[in-house]
Design brief:
Elements: E1 2-25, E2 28-51, E3 54-80, E4 83-100, E5 107-109, E6 112-122, E7 130-140, H1 145-150, E8 159-171, E9 175-186, E10 189-193, E11 198-202
Antiparallel strand pairs: 1-2, 2-3, 3-4, 4-5, 4-6, 6-7, 7-8, 8-9, 10-11
């Protein structure tokens, strides 16, 4: 006898809007951008014992609805043709709705997360074909909705800090090559154990 986990995405939808405005500040060009994004997923997830591809016992059967409404703002400062910076802030409001068709985790949660970002882009040559960049951003790791509702005391949207430095080389409009070193720090992470239909809570990861 073996356990088989199956997942079907029943529906998906997303939409985004953004608006930018250019404002000269002395010798610096300031480009302000605000926007919003919305996404919804409807998922059917099941876990059952089977033998020779015939289901014998349903362990977990859930209908999951997830929504994410994001609002963001950023300011890009172009000092000259060789240097520009970007700073921004993003807020996400999520909604988890887990319904158990068979015995299993169920519930509703509406967590939120806010994080900054920053970038520095340097163009060292007059030909504008080389770029050096450094990025930082704080976001979140979205855990399995079933894990989140089964243990509301655990971190639902644990923070994630991302760091990146790299170089980019363009060849006109024909091609572009980039190389980067990056690091991602997660405050916490849940692991869904598919064979047992339970959640295993973990600590920080890198």
């Amino acid at each position: 006898m073996t356990a088989c986990c199956s997942a079907i995405t029943a529906a998906y939808g997303a939409v985004g809007l953004r608006r930018s405005r250019l404002t000269p500040l002395g010798g610096v060009r300031a480009i302000a951008t605000v926007g919003t994004e919305w996404r919804r997923d409807a998922i059917d997830v099941g876990l059952s014992h089977q033998q020779r591809r015939h289901p014998l016992e349903t362990m977990v059967d859930s209908t999951i609805g997830e929504q994410d409404l994001g609002l963001y703002a950023q300011e890009e400062l172009v000092f000259n043709e060789h240097l520009r910076t970007i700073v921004g802030l993003r807020h996400d409001r999520l909604a988890f709705d887990v319904r158990a068709v068979a015995p299993g985790p169920a519930g509703r949660l509406s967590p939120s997360s806010t994080g900054p970002k920053a970038s520095v882009i340097v163009t060292p040559t007059d030909t504008m074909d080389w770029q050096l960049f450094a990025n930082y951003g704080r976001g979140f790791h979205s855990n399995d909705a079933r894990a989140a509702v089964s243990d509301p005391t655990a971190p639902i949207l644990p923070g994630a800090n991302g760091y990146e430095v790299g170089v980019r080389r363009s060849f006109g409009h024909r091609a572009e090559v980039a190389a980067a070193w990056w690091l991602l720090d997660l405050d916490s992470e849940f692991t869904w154990v598919g064979d047992e239909g339970i959640t295993d809570a973990g600590g920080a990861t890198r």
